[in-house]
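so the lab meeting is tmrw and i was supposed to have these ready like two days ago... anyway. pasting both below. for each one the top line is the aa sequence and the line under it is the structure tokens. i havent really looked at them closely yet so no promises
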Amino acid sequence: MPEITGLTLGGAEYTPQFVLELDAKRCIGCGRCFRVCSRDVFELVEREGIDFDDDPYGDDDPYGDDDDDGFSDDTSMVMTLKNRLDCIGCEACSKICPKKCFTHGSAAVAG
């Protein structure tokens, strides 16, 4: 996909950074990203429904339940990408996320 360039109201160019991935292992299911997204990109699901077999951290998981965030990693909800292709690249989800779960990139990277 070619690079997409937008314009601000003042005429300045910018490159939208679209959501590429959401790290469900880090997600605490707070729903902040869901609330700031106007495009229906996310969906909150039961954490137990997510397959973490590809867990790169194993028993040394730095994002486990030992971070005192008050969420149980075994029973809580987790955010997933429902419709990534509807993302407009505003990065509001990333800016509000307390656990830095998102990876963003330009249209050239996302395509």
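ok protien two:
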Amino acid sequence: MFVCLCYGITDKQITKAVRDEGVGNMRDLRKTLGVGSQCGKCIQLAQQVIDNTIIDESLFKEVC
């Protein structure tokens, strides 16, 4: 799903940035993908994707 319409950024691209590039907050995401730097309507959803990805990764590590 598209999170940032201004730059055409999807939730999968954000998830990949968190996993592969260590993005952990909106400041990092803005630097990496530009998300949230235009109109700002995507910030809340983008932060949710970051948080959910981090939580999913930590749960996966606990199970393994």
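from a quick look at the 2nd one: The chain has three helices and two strands. The chain has one domain: 2-63. will dig more after coffe
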